[in-house]
Every structure is written in structure tokens, then in C-alpha cells.
Amino acid sequence: xxxxxxxxxxxxxxxxxxxxxxxxxxxxxxxxxxxxxxxxxxxxxxxxxxxxxxxxxxxxxxxxxxxxxxxxxxxxxxxxxxxxxxxxxxxxxxxxxxxxxxxxxxxxxxxxxxxxxxxxxxxxxxxxxxxxxxxxxxxxxxxxxxxxxxxxxxxxxxxxxxxxxxxxxxxxxxxxxxxxxxxxxxxxxxxxxxxxxxxxxxxxxxxxxxxxxxxxxxxxxxxxxxxxxxxxxxxxxxxxxxxxxxxxxxxxxxxxxxxxxxxxxxxxxxxxxxxxxxxxxxxxxxxxxxxxxxxxxxxxxxxxxxxx
Length: 308
Known about the structure:
By secondary structure, the chain is mainly α. The chain contains eleven helices and five strands.
């Protein structure tokens, strides 16, 4: 292990990821499970991207955002799962400080981008259902591009803030991270520096990145629900309800686990948070195609046309 000495402390240059170290049995099953989920995620989301790109009938704002979400999920799960698969096979899975902070940067970028992308999708449904006569003008192609671009920019800025703060921390012995991958809470919990600035930054940005978007989405669905209940056209109302329920399922799963993970002191980090992290990072991207798109009649029809 590479170390340097300063002020009678041993400053580590790499971390041990303890998530798999204490698992003595069932590693083969865990490897197959993770590989299966990763494959399903890649295939499902890649299929959605291909269908949206190749089918002209799906070149609408809703499917534009769904395609972006699928691309995001492919990137998101690829940041952690390949390294996790390698770590299952390793006797002592390690990661350098640079590698850990880089992994954290990509994770936070993609998490934040998805949070704002889900807001864009909620606004799209709000305009489609509550402002149908103005929908085409409000959700133009240029507007959709701006909303998606703004989501990525916000994600990068947010991640850059936490990455910069993390680089200014010192990490001393013991060098074990109680997680399967590098994330903000477990990284802060093992630092031997004062992390009060980092903790404050997590809480403040968490309000703007997590809580505010979440309540904005819920508010949009209050108006959507009101519009649906007052709509006399039952068939259209049923279709709108189906789309909105799928969206809300993803939103609650994503924001619920995200808020639980980040908006608490890192000192309270425990083993149950590792499980929530896996839910947040692996299960959600895997289920998104099934919840969001593959049960959609228009997507199924487009797939049949593409295949046959």
C-alpha cells in the first residue's frame, strides 16, 4: 500500500472497499445476479434508445426525454457495476483516491442530471395534459434541448463542487470504505479532516437538487390529477393516468432512496445505507425500462415495426 507520513499520521493513497470483503459465501451468486441486472439494464435501455431514434412517430418531447433517461441510466450503472464485478473476484478490492473521487464525480453528475431530467419529464406531462392547446409551442424541439442540456450542466457543476471539496480532505488509517463503491457519505465518514464544510454543502445542495425538484414534481402531478379527474374523455384520461403512474413510480423510487442516502449526517452511515445505495444505483436503472417504456403501447408497437 502506498502511504506518506505527515504530522505523525499515515495518509493513505488508496482505499479498501469493504462491501464485498465481509461476504464469505454466495459470491458466485452475487456475481451472476449483478451481471444479470447489468445486462438487463444495458439491453433494455439500449433498446429504448434505438427505438426512439429510429422511429419517427416517437420523435416527441416525451420520448426525447425517455431516450435521454435511458442513455443516462446506461452511463450511471456503468460507473459502478463493472468495478463491483471485478471487486467480487478480488481478495482485497482497492481503489486509489483519484479513482474514488473520479467515481464519485461521475456518480453525482449522473444522479443530479437524472434528478433534473425527471423534473423536465414532469413538466412535459403537465403541459401535455393541462395546457394541450399550447403544448406544441411550450415544448418545442429547442426547448427540449435546452432543458436536457441544462440538466447535464447542473449535474456537472454540482459534482464539481463536491469533488473539489473532497480533494481538500485528508484520508488516514483505517482506509476501509464501508460500501461497494465510492460515494459522498462513505467517503466523508472515513476522512480524518474537518468535514463540516462538506456536510453543509451536501445539505444545502441536497435541498436544491433533491427536495425542491421532488416537491415540484409532486406539485405538477397535483395539477395533472385535477385535470384528469375533470376530463370527460375516459380513454384519454386512462392513458394519461397510466403514463403518470409510471413516472411517479420512478420518481418516488429514485428521490426516496436519494434523499435517504444524502440528506443525513455521514456519521450515521451504516450497513443498511449500503443496501439503499445498491437500490439507488443499480436497481433503479435496471427497472426504468420496464416501468417506464417497455410497458408502453406506443413503444411496443414501434419495437414490432423495427423488428419486422
